[in-house]
Amino acid sequence: MTSVTELAYIGIEASDLDAWQHFGVDLMGMQLAERTEDSLALRMDAKAHRWIVVRGDADDLAFTGFECATEADLGAVVANLRAAGAEVAEGGADLAAARKVERVVVTADPVGNRVELFVGLADADTPFQSDVLFSNFVTGAGGAGHEFLMERVDRQEILDWYGILGFKVTDYVKEEVAPGVFADAVFTRCNERHHSVAWADMPFPKRIHHFMIEVGSINDVGLAYDRCMDAKQPFEMTLGMHPNDEMFSFYVRTPSGFNIEYGWGGLTIDDSTWQIKHLDKLDTWGHRAPQVVADLLKP
Ligand SMILES: [Fe+2]
């Protein structure tokens, strides 16, 4: 079965590009790749860009880019999508140039999220450099990170569609968060990263709840936590750890209202031995609402 190799880039439609540049570069530790009046590109590694932020009112996920290893692989995925009834359009030379890839096609998943499939994401001309990172972003074989998206439609339809891209279920988490109220999520992978795309049906007003970026040192999580606190960037969740992907992380609000999970120590999966798990907790510890801390400090 042909598979995409990684979630390689993410696109955001954002109303405040200056805020995004500050957030991405100064707080998250990314490198500015390119800035125009209406767009912003950010680097996380040797690649030309990993985040593409375009001006617009949505303040939400605009597209996700999945890489294929070869033209033949891309062709096979496109053929399989079309056979399953999906519309797939050639992106053309202008879009390929904007994305800094060799060839890109555009489609939409069953939820309506724009998905770009491509080959050949270019490297930047210079080595990656962050002004604030102690270590590096963990990308490589695991891609840019993971996205946690809102289901909105039948789960099986989503899993079948992403299955055509080569995604496999890693595990399921179903936690009773209040009597009779369940948080119910499914985590899927296309490489050694525990998951590149996760799904849950929850009351959240965006397409995307969070995008996780991983750093190579636990100190970088703490340093980013401090930078966000110093900048008074609103937090979504305090430090904590997930039992399924073992990510040590915190969640901070982006300028577009969804969240970044800033993590370290994520599990990698050995595809030859992994068996699908069912868990009943989203958090091993922590990841509390920041209001809990605020309430403790009330006089
Ligand atoms: Fe996550």
The third-level CATH topology of the largest domain is 2,3-Dihydroxybiphenyl 1,2-Dioxygenase, domain 1
Overall tally of domains: 2
If helices are DSSP runs of H or I spanning 4 or more residues, what is the number of helices?
A: 6
Low-confidence stretches: none
**Gap between N and C termini:** 60 Å
Beta-strand proportion: 35-45%
Mean pLDDT across every amino acid position: 97
Specify Rg, calculated over alpha carbons: 19 Å
Which structural class fits the helix and strand makeup?
A: alpha+beta
Q: Element order, helices and strands? A: EHEEEEHEHEEEHEEEEHEEEEEH
Number of strands: 18
Largest sheet: 10 strands, mixed
Named at the architecture level, the CATH assignment of the largest domain is Roll
Please, what is the CATH homologous superfamily of the largest domain? Answer: 2,3-Dihydroxybiphenyl 1,2-Dioxygenase, domain 1
CATH level 1 class label of the largest domain: Alpha Beta
Shape: globular
Bound molecules: fe (ii) ion
Helix content range of the residues, please? Answer: 10-25%
Strand order of the largest sheet: 17-10-11-12-9-13-16-15-14-18
Characterization of this structure:
With 299 residues, the protein is α+β, with helices and mostly antiparallel strands. The chain folds into two domains: 114 residues, 2,3-Dihydroxybiphenyl 1,2-Dioxygenase, domain 1 (Roll); 158 residues, 2,3-Dihydroxybiphenyl 1,2-Dioxygenase, domain 1 (Roll), CATH 3.10.180. The chain has six helices and 18 strands. A ten-stranded mixed β-sheet has the order 17-10-11-12-9-13-16-15-14-18. The protein has an eight-stranded mixed β-sheet with strand order 2-3-4-1-5-8-7-6, with helices on both faces. It is globular, with a radius of gyration of 19 Å. The mean pLDDT is 97.
